[in-house]
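Give me structure tokens for this 196-residue protein.
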Amino acid sequence: MQIKRVVVKCLHEDAIIPRYAYSTDSGADLYSIQTVIIEPQSHRKIKTGISIELPEGYEFQVRSKSGIADKNDVFVLNSPGTVDTDYRGEIQVLLYNLSDKPSLVEKGSKIAQLVLAPVTHAEFVELERLENRFGSTGIHESVNNVSQGIHSIGGWEDDTDEDKKDNNAVSKSSKSIWIDNNGSQSGFLNGMLSME
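Here you go.
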């Protein structure tokens, strides 16, 4: 596993340096330096009391803790938040309480996790026309699957060979009527067919 050196400055006497609970964890835990109550359906900015110096070409992603989200319905509102390599201010975490009751964040408790990630910049090139790379093959397959489902619903699999010949002659008009009529299913097919 690759290790990168990150310099941490404690801005508060109660600050806790981020640490990994296990050697195999991808995220290091962030801790609160304050006791805060987050009201239902609202958010609070929680202080961690630390600032950091990242190696060039890297960012920290601030992500929710799954345990807190599962037990308390509290998560990082803008997850994943981004700490840029040149940011030197205090790391603060925007927590949102999705539940219908107040949630208590105690001083010294875990509130989020930091994941170190490499940064790749894109080169944006302006063109007048973009190549169409939409997966049209998947659309045709979806339409065929839906059409086969319509046949099954109509009971055609139980028809005789003669009936199937007659039904095949009707199927094209039946499918077009079904597709053109108003309704969620017809709209779905129309949407897929219009993208061919």
